[in-house]
Amino acid sequence: MAQPQEPQGNAPPLLAPEEHVLSTLEHDGSRRWLKPKLSKGGFWHKRRVVAYLLIALYALLPHLSIGGKPVMLLDVAQRRFTIGGYTFLPTDTLLLAIFMVGMLLTVFLATALVGRVWCGWACPHTVYMEYLFRPIERFFDGTVGKGGVPRKKPSGARKAAKYAIYFLISLHLSNTFLAYFVGAETLHGWIFSSPAEHPGGFAIVAVVAAGMMFHFSYFREQLCIIACPYGRLQSALLDDHSRIVAYDVTRGEPRGRKRKSLPVVEQPPVGDCVDCKLCVHTCPTGIDIREGLQMECVNCTQCMDACDAVMRKLGRAPGLIRYSSQAADAGKPSTLLRPRTLIYPAILLVLAGAFAFLLGTKADFDAVLLRGKGQPFTVLEGGDIRNVFGVKLTNRADEAQTLRVELGPDAPRGTQMQPLHVELEPGQMETATVLVVAPAAEFLRNRGQVEVTLRVTDEAGDHRDIEGEMLGPDTARRPTPEKDTAR
Ligand code: SF4
Ligand code: SF4
Fold this sequence. Notes:
Layout: H1 42-60, E1 65-66, E2 69-70, E3 72-75, E4 80-83, E5 86-88, H2 93-114, H3 117-122, H4 124-141, H5 156-182, H6 184-191, H7 199-219, H8 222-227, H9 229-232, H10 234-237, E6 244-247, H11 249-252, H12 278-281, H13 302-313, E7 321-324, H14 326-329, H15 339-360, E8 365-371, E9 378-379, E10 385-395, E11 401-407, E12 416-417, E13 420-424, E14 429-438, H16 440-445, E15 449-457, E16 463-471
Antiparallel strand pairs: 1-2, 3-4, 4-5, 6-7, 8-10, 9-10, 10-14, 11-13, 11-15, 12-14, 15-16
């Protein structure tokens, strides 16, 4: 039952919360600042290796290339995304969609199998917070090596030095972030030129650096607790057999210590948990894992390291808090084979096959036939019918090339078109206008429908035929002039 608190001044009495609301909120609603203690156990050491590798990878990735192409370049302005040395163009919507769905399903599958391993081991927030910003903070707070709340308040000079280093790191991170979108070379040029020459890039760096400062100095674990959608999806993505960080209730409870003042026969029964609360004090999201699976738990393993150290000191077996599953905790056998761990890989296999097929059959150019804007057809002197089409061409090759557009071999008798030559730079996309003329008799013979095929040929002699429908007097009322009837 909620108890009213003492009124302050003339203010009405406040109701005290009935239960714990958020691990980072005090009872009066103010922020509870977390200063987690450091538990340097086996998991912490392994995570540190992974974290430093990921930090190095993040910084190096924009500078690496495969076959002369960047490993990762997300050129939003040009709508070209290079991933793993392959460039996705705006015409690759299907490939990109398959790739994105594949990534999403991979996350689902990984979560079903190994739980929130991403949060604890690889999420940029965890990696940078726990292995870069937090160590710097502990150094300037005087708690290096052990964490926790500093014994005395750090001086103003120490605080200033800490934030200055935060700022330099944030600046480096925001520049690296920008390099993913403009490329390392462009960024290098921008760094050594006036911001007035690239105000957009400068603004992005300034905003991202400010965002990093805000996040790593102030927002911190709030990202996991109140902002990140992944934690909220946990209940849907995990099942009883997914791996979680769990406290062994059967072994640990009832928690407490043996009372030295009581003889052995009068000792109340106690489990292995001595209620030292180290697992709580080491938790970067401030929760007590002994209360069970919680959305705030990012599976960082710090409580496992802390509790293992306590157990070893007491001469007991480690693993009171350990990687487990809800099924294992309930004494049921764990299994890898469940509907979701079979269905996700099956869909992933189909997607991978479709992706490989589409990628393998991609020509060096894309061609799409579009209906031209304006009136659907023109009746020429002499009765022939003229249609306007747009041929959207994309050069997918790494070199410039000239594409030839002409009538296809199966064009109806008497159809004419002036062949076109279109020069395109690598990755360039252009829509060329073509005029196709067909005799009116063709429309009559074919009940007003005249199929036309255009052939696009590249410099290597490879060609693609693109089909469309010509409109004549009998068909003018059917499609709208803007409608794309090309296939
Ligand atoms: S660290 Fe272990 S022994 Fe200490 S309170 Fe947590 S679970 Fe209990
Ligand atoms: S409960 Fe343990 S694993 Fe979960 S976030 Fe806290 S310290 Fe990390």
